Amino acid sequence: MQAESTPAMGPADLVAAARQGVPGRKWVMVIDLAKCDGCGACTRACSKMHFVPPDRQWIKVLRMQESEKTAPYYFPQPCYHCDNPPCTKVCPVDATFKRSDGVVLIDNERCIGCRFCMAACPYGARSFNWGAPENPPEALAKPYTPEDGFPRRIGTVEKCDFCPDMAEMGMLPACAKSCPMNAIYYGDENEDAVTNSSGETVRLSQLLLDRSGYRHLEELGTNPRVYYLPPKNRMYAPPPPVITG
Question: Is residue 238 domain-resident?
């Protein structure tokens, strides 16, 4: 007896499926600041995979220094996919939305370019397509889904998408997979496990407990799904301090 083939999903089906999330999953990321050497491999890999134009970055690598007497360190910053996201609350057309698996996405077929979400985001995670974007043939060949965000459209907002399509296939996001320092962990909070580019899988709760994990601007109440491990006992030389005056 021949097995029945599953009918191909149409454009509307792809968009509807992208809004649901992966059942039973809660994607989470941990960034070890003690390992990050600021090389920018995560940014380059992300930009290549998502055809990100050179005038923006979906994951920024910032150089941070708390005061003149403390050592600088590098701080990768993607979208935090907050569990209490201000961006989704202000969107008048439900173009930016929160899925059941924790991911916050943008449907640029609904986006009207009001930029309310950009104003509401306290982390500056979003970019705006002011002009007609240059979509390479590879992007134009793909069927549109909010999980990818391309082809891009003029007058719409975009950001890091947490690579949920890759996570569903058991693969790391481009940023985590490309990190030569194994600084970015990604996984499922429900399984209490995260993995880095070397294949090291650790218990999420124990990692955060042992290394004093924290979330950026926790006091805002946005509940990010990205955690940081403090830059203690760093595995690389610290960045040179900024000399002023």
Answer: no
Tokens (6 digits) for 86: 């201000």
* Angstrom distance (rounded) from CA 179 to CA 43: 9
User: Is position 235 within any domain?
Assistant: no
CATH code assigned at 147: 3.30.70.20
Whole-number Å distance between alpha carbons of 125 and 119? 10
CA distance 227 to 222: 13
Q: Please list, in sequence order, all residues whose beta carbon lies within 8 angstroms of the beta carbon of residue 123, skipping any fewer than 6 positions away.
A: 77, 79, 80, 216, 217
Q: Amino acid identity of 158?
A: E
Q: Classify strands 226-229 and 27-32 as parallel, antiparallel or unpaired.
A: parallel
Number of domains in the chain: 1
Beta 27-32 vs 184-188: how paired, if at all? antiparallel
143-189 per-position pLDDT tens digit: 888 988 888 999 999 999 999 999 989 999 999 999 999 999 999 99
pTM confidence score: 0.90
Measuring CA to CA, which residue among 52, 112, 57, 120 is closest to residue 86? 120
Query: Residue 163 is which amino acid?
Result: C
Residues 204, 26 contacting (CB under 8 angstroms): no
